[in-house]
What does this fold into?
Amino acid sequence: MNTTHNVLIVGVGGQGVLLASEVLSSVSMEAGFDTKKSEVHGMAQRGGVVSSHVRFGEKVYSALIKEGEADVILAFEQAEAQRWIHFLRPEGSIIINKYKLFPPIASMKGFDYPEDPIGAVKKRTANVTVVEAVKLANGLGNSRLVNTILLGVLSLRLDIPTQIWEKVISERVPKGTEKLNITAFQEGRSQQ
Amino acid sequence: MKAILSGNEAVARGCYEYGLHVATAYPGTPSTEILENISQYSEIYSEWSPNEKVAFEVAMGATFEGARTLVAMKHVGLNVAADPFVSMSFIGAPGGFIVVSADDPGMHSSQNEQDNRYYAKFAAYPCLDPSDSQEAKDFVGSALDISVRFDTPVLFRMTTRICHAKGVVELGERKEYEIRGFESDIRKFVVLPSHGRLRHPMVVERLNKLREFAETTDLNTIEKGSSGIGVITNGVAYQYVKEIMPEASVLKLGMCYPLPLQKIRSFAGGVERLFVVEELEPFIEEQLRAEGIACEGKRYWSNLGELNPEIVEAGFAAAGILKSAPAAPQKEEVIPRPPVFCPGCPHRGLYYSLNKLKALVTTDIGCYTLGVLPPLSAGHTCVEMGASIGVAAGMAKTRGDGRGIVATIGDSTFLHSGMTGLLNTVSNGAGITVVIADNRITAMTGGQQHPGSGKTLAGNPGIQVDLPAVCRALGANNIREVDTYNLEEVQTVLREEMDKDELSVVITTRPCVLYPSENRKKYKEPIFQVDPEKCIGCKACFKVSCPAIGESDEKTAKGLPKTYIDELLCTGCSVCSQVCPTGAIQRIE
It folds into this structure.
């Protein structure tokens, strides 16, 4: 029986994908699960595609999720949601930050940013949650809260006590912003 | 206590716990974080060296004194350090000595995917190959034990997925070890031919003892399964095998050289079919075949690129062991995001100019290799650290004329192994232009100090090597400095130098905008914006390939999209404003 949970977090270098997967893997370890996480460093600062695999359960061998076996995908960017949707299992769910980042190559002939990435994802699965995290973060007065809001939405899909999330987030965020980040996490948890 | 650590962090933690004294390295993905993390432990002396060979030599000196020592590098770094690596085998490792080789299957950040397990066989080193973070930590202890017990350096081979993947690790306390001091013995430490002839039999004998050790060490473990299938595997491949073939019997080789042949024979005797699943080359499989042990391996798993669970599964399906996996889910075609120079990168103005001047560019290893990619498209050859200058000189010699040939090399790469290339060009004469793209940091690997940075690994102020003085000392007379934020200056100087059949060195003076991190604020200037009234949608500004420049929703009368500049990304470098034909890009004062 496979009781390993598979979460794929994707986005563009510089968006905070690695920090988010760092928080999730600490949360699952604190919750008592064996945990593995894998991503490739190197191009993260340079606007490249970033994906981070997090797996947790009683005993985890491979750090990599197989295609078609992610329980949850958290996409920080719309086109990236479309790029990685084939990793989702049929009954899995995907959370998409409603945000677009244009690569410079989009200005060259033959390279177009996808017209409707969220629509393309919806053609493949019904379990899509679109979050306007930038808008919500600005509503809380700080655009840097996008990550924590998205983690709040992600926490709804995983069976780990909220206190553990809040503890790890408080440890990870810059000093003095703990309260604000917990509010942002709760804001994320209030999204459907 | 438990912590979630990457393989690199776990190696550093292992160095702390197992009483390491000295660690050295030259940065290189995926190995860089090993030394960065070791530097946080004040009990261990650590330093960045200018290249892997020097790092290896400093580490050798430390272990000759009796220190427990580690030197870390990426796989191609071991090519640079291969000379001391091979010779050290004849000497031994009095204090304990680990050579970390971080291989990069799949070439996430490398020019090749050589399998450095072969180096172990080549130089008669034992080779340990951890399969997760816990083992990465534990094996540091095992490697030091083996090294001291057998008086041998140990090759500690990792791969990108082990270095960068994180897993749960049980932490322990540090044990202290004494440093015995150097015990002079010229027959051991001086590699004269007459001494070497005495030492070589020792190497053969040591390897035989290691073979016996391999049979009994718990680094090599058998997990008995319920099926008749046996799998011999090592490194990250072990994890994929356990994932895909939970019923199989598995022999995991934590020490993949020398092999425990008796253990393997007995394992093979207990299974109906024997497979070898290993990433990259058939290193284990070839040795089994040479011993007449029937096995199946590369027939089902390619030696190209990384393995993953899907590939391992497909191999067992092809072998008729598993039912064929259902067809993989269809991938969506989505616009690629190739890496580009950061906004404000000082290399942008250089490569834009070299393209304009139609230079023949031999380039080198670093962030600036990206200058080869369109639309900058300035770069025609790139091979390995320091090659640019020698290659340019060779081309000039062959043509009998160095005009128009430009070698571009970063500061860290120049100090790593470009200086001898320049010295050669001076002494043998070649009329090329050498550009040292000096951003004062090793940027591609995340901002590590080098002798031109003015700081040591520990953050202490050090001597900042004077590049123009170095070039002059090497005999280059014509040295010029340029600011790459000033396109006219760069192009004028480059044109003048390219037009002469004489050696010249052009040094760029702008530091990296990202590293050290204080530069991000220090060099940020008032940013630019596009005046939509003046923008004619010609896209000249796109040619500088800056991530801050994009298309706005506004269109020109001809229906062309106008340009906008992302105010969060712009650093105010001004390069795009210098190429705009209508003056539409203006600084916001």
The mean pLDDT of chain A is 93. The first helix of chain A runs from residue 17 to 30.
